[in-house]
Amino acid sequence: MNLGEEITIFTPDRAVEILKVVGVFDLGVASLNKNWLISTIGTAQSVGKLGDTVTSIEMQVSEVFRADENASVISERLSGSALLVTDWKSQNEDLLSGLNGQSVSSIMIQVFVIIAVSLGIASVLAITVVQKSRQIGILKAMGLKDSTTSFVFLFQGLALGIVGAVVGIAFGILLIIMFSTFAVGTDGEPIIRISLSYGFVMLSALIAIGASTIAAMVPARRSSKLSPVEVIRNG
């Protein structure tokens, strides 16, 4: 279908209307592109024999999961009228349930990944305490304070968190670029448009750094309790 072409429409009352194409819209969904026709309100009223009335008004909100709250506010302001106010959440309960389940599953996966990574860092540093116990005992015998010994392992945990956050963010951005470049449709556009939230990236980095630092507290506390006399005697 090209601009300037004419299309024939058959209305429910068997009337024939001829319209001219003045624009083409891509709604991103093949079924909508085939079945939807967008016109001015005057044309729609004329074709549907509606006079100066409308059958429904649809609107899009910026926060889709608060559509029910917006519908409640509008319904209260239109109280006493014959208008019916609905929202997509009440009309698509199965879809909403699926989205909520997906969000909960995603959060649970992230939590368990953080726990697993924290346990891995804690175990690695704990093994380091055991392997370096003799050196730690000698340094303590030479006057190294317990707080300084703990700080060494806390610094290692912090460094692991920073390096891991930087590498993880870089790898994630690389995957986004690759997905947007290679996962495209027939029109050359990405199948799924991905937007990068810098706030979420920073939050993820802070969580990674904080988790690794907290995990390092266990071996740091263990190293501070090492007695130099017992370590050197048993070493």
Description:
With 235 residues, the protein is mainly α. It has helices at 30-35, 41-48, 67-77, 88-91, 93-131, 133-141, 146-182, 198-215, 217-224, 228-234; strands at residues 6-10, 16-20. The protein has a two-stranded antiparallel sheet with strand order 1-2. Helix 5 (93-131) packs parallel to helix 9 (217-224) and helix 7 (146-182) packs antiparallel against helix 9. It is elongated and about 105 Å long.
Short description:
The protein has 235 residues and is mainly α. The chain is 63% helix and 4% strand.
Characteristics:
235 residues, single chain, 4% strand, mainly alpha
Write the layout of secondary structure elements.
Elements: E1 6-10, E2 16-20, H1 30-35, H2 41-48, H3 67-77, H4 88-91, H5 93-131, H6 133-141, H7 146-182, H8 198-215, H9 217-224, H10 228-234
Antiparallel strand pairs: 1-2
Helix pairs in contact: 5-8, 5-9, 6-10, 7-8, 7-9
